[in-house]
Amino acid sequence: MHKRTLIQTAVAAALLAAGGLALAQDNTFKIGLILPMTGQQATTGRQIEAAARLYMAQNGDTVAGKKIQLIVKDDTSLPDVTRRLAQELVVNDKVNVLAGFGITPSAMATAPIATQSKTPQVVMAAATSAITEASPYIVRTSFTLPQVSVALADWAPKNGIKKVVTLVTDYGPGIDAEKFFASRLQFNGGQVTEALRVPLRNPDFAPFLQKVRDAKPDALFVFVPSGAGAAVMKQFLERGMDKAGIKLIATGDVTDDDQLNDMGDGALGVVTSHHYSAAHPSATNKKFVEAFTKANKNLRPNFMAVGGYDGMRVIYEALKKTGGKGDGDALLAAMKGQIFESPRGPVFIDAQTRDIVQNVYLRKVEKKDAQLYNVEFDVIKDVKDPGKTK
Ligand code: VNL
Question: What b/e sequence results for 78-89 when a residue is b if at least 16 CB atoms lie within 10 Å of its CB, and e otherwise?
Fold first, then answer.
């Protein structure tokens, strides 16, 4: 206990000194972007890096007299690596902002460093509700699982779905999705008859799906993180779950735009709720999708890309507002309360919670121009994260 305190004090002192130096620095403004560029969550890193670079290409790399430098680091989605990289970025590179964070454990591992060094931490991907409460320096531009799961639990019972089995990845966002979906479904007169959890690392969905088939619910509700959706869809169809009369409903992480078009026609008709679809019919989104696709060899942007793009916007505008003179606290203050039109629709960074308030859409997989898309058919406007404890 005593030893731990000493180490923490030493780290805090080093971080404070580093923060002081950063202020005295030259004319660069450094953004340390920590992402999973390799390993199981690599698509998330690829999408966010591409979006951040697109934002810079479109908006220039000089803001308020400062030259923006983007330093990308690969944490391979291991939280111990994220923590070490964040510390190096703050102490050695003297970054002004930490950003990225593909999965919840990585965002959580960085929170104490953000707090101690007073560095804003812009979470562009991770989506467990509690993340923003882990440090007063965290601002989020992605979403939360409670935010999107509740909408589906309102839709389901109105559409003949009363008995549901849930299947989620066994960590923060999955547990949030399971909990908020179940309690809202129950409130609406439905029922979760069984709650199944699969491991985050190397999941095998087959044995779980067999259990679901035997239980024969009206629907299976699924959350898995971005990148794992195609495997779930494949095994769901291979086991003939749909033919057995079990509907698949999910958060939009499953019908991920990064993978959806390769899932095949078996995905047609799957209903999900989420905050972003590449098919969102706004002028802002059409421009975004066109520019992103063009800059990235036809890669379709997914919700991760939008979290990264909007995160850059929040950083750029904070830098503008502080005239390039602000420290971490000033930047943070300038991030709070930002309101803007995102490719996903209108968004707002709640100054109290530092979390994003946004529309949640109900969508159905449909074919448009011979491609599969999540086509929005209903919207719940300005949804706050229902998971906040205060
Ligand atoms: C998380 C949530 C990660 C949703 C995801 O994909 C996702 C997380 C990598 O909080 O870890 O789709």
Answer: ebebbbebbbeb
